[in-house]
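To the structural biology subgroup,

Please find below the input and predicted structure for Zn(2)-C6 fungal-type domain-containing protein, which we are adding to the shared reference set this quarter. The sequence is reproduced verbatim from the submission form. If anyone notices a discrepancy with their own records, reply to this email rather than editing the shared folder directly, so we keep one authoritative version.
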Amino acid sequence: MIDSDLARPNVSPPSKSCHNCRRKRLRCDRSIPDCQKCTSKGEKCLGYGKLLRWTNAVAVRGNLADQISQRPSHTVHSHTKDVVASHLVHPRGRQPPDTELRPLQLSLIDPLLVDLAPRHRVYIGHFTRTVCQDLVSFDHQDTQNPFRSMLSLIDRFDYIREITLATSAVHMVTLRRARGLTYHKELVDALTAKGQAFRLLRRALDSLAAVDKPIAVVAVVFFINFDLIESGRGCWKTHVEAAGNLLNSIHAMEIRKQIPPSVANLADIVVADCITYHVLGSAFASSGDTALSAFESIDITSVLQRAAAFSYGCYPPIMLETLSRASRLSQNDVCQAGALMDELCGLDFRTWVYSIPGLSPEDDLEVRVSIADAHRAATCLYILLAVPDLERDSLSDQSITAESQTRKVLDQLASVPIEHALAKGLIWPTFMVGAQTDDLAERQWCLGRMHKIWLSNAFVCPWGYVESAITMMQRVWETKDAKSKHGGHSGMNWLQELKAASDHALIV
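Predicted structure (tokenized):
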């Protein structure tokens, strides 16, 4: 659990529309700190709190609207922990030249944010409210989200502050782009903060204390998150390798005793995310790619198990461990591939799901079981594609075929409602089965689900890596269909061809 003095509160959405939208009788999106509808029109959002008016203030309606008060008007800015709650209204009547307008300085800003510019406070508010929700499987109201403890670090570690701002800004870019709104300012802010974070982190690494290494790992992993939000491409592989090298230099148990519990929990889930990125990135990397070898000495299963309650993709730790081993197999490793298949098929994921520590009592455990089974079948499909001779040597066993595993993945995917909060963890198995199938209806079904998760799921921002995964899947189809026209489709192994490609997106 996160220390109460370090954790940030979970901000609930306003119960009413902002004052601007109420006056204009418009539907408000109730965004905090400012309504996005007002922001997109260039208007100053008046917020959601109570509007205060001073005695003898200028009348804005009725018979007294043209009379000028002798008392100046003031504007009060009242801040909550991380967002602006309400603003006073400037009178609409004209002011005489000798009337002085002076803002009343009644600032109630979180001490952690007092040195930030107003625009940066908006990004911090967006990070706390929305980005943190995207980074976990589900942001339960009765469970503390470890990512919110990052706010306790922004005043002590300048590189954490900048990468937090960068991540929040690029998150806003994707949201505004998906809604057809302009996003130039947010994009400039995102790239500027990312560059500043890189420079500050590089300087800090030159004299980094051992106890601060987990904090540096957090920053490096958020560079990967930035890439995932933007497109899933970029320098993610370099960042994964850098994080792995840092992890190898950390004596985990000794350092955990020296850092606050909230930061230790944050480090656990960030390291788990990094390992997940490493495993899934390695799955499509070429066999000669050594950039992702920095994690070979890390106990993947134990690290992932500590963060299982928050894991974004709901991946069973043993499944990722198996996938990591499968990604290193050659096409001749039939015996090892068969052993991995037997190990996977013998696992009881229902028992594992029901024993995950730290889950909310209201968590949907049966959906988690379906997702785990989908991941299992997709991993079995991966093994069969990585070692094709395994299927040919197992002709008597009808369960060890790419077709049977494809059916299992599709069945498990169909059992998870697309609007469910946990559905955002289904991109990788959907990509695997979508790329594998030749049935046009099944292709369109997979494509439709990925599109809905990307743009319509209320529990996840339209992260760019989902769009890149869709593009990769469509390219696989184009290659398979082109070869089919020339009679060469039956011998095509799309996984082997994808591994041979020089560049691909990180799909999580």
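Summary notes: Residues 261-283 form the longest helix (23 residues). Residues 208-500 form one domain.

Regards,
Lab coordination
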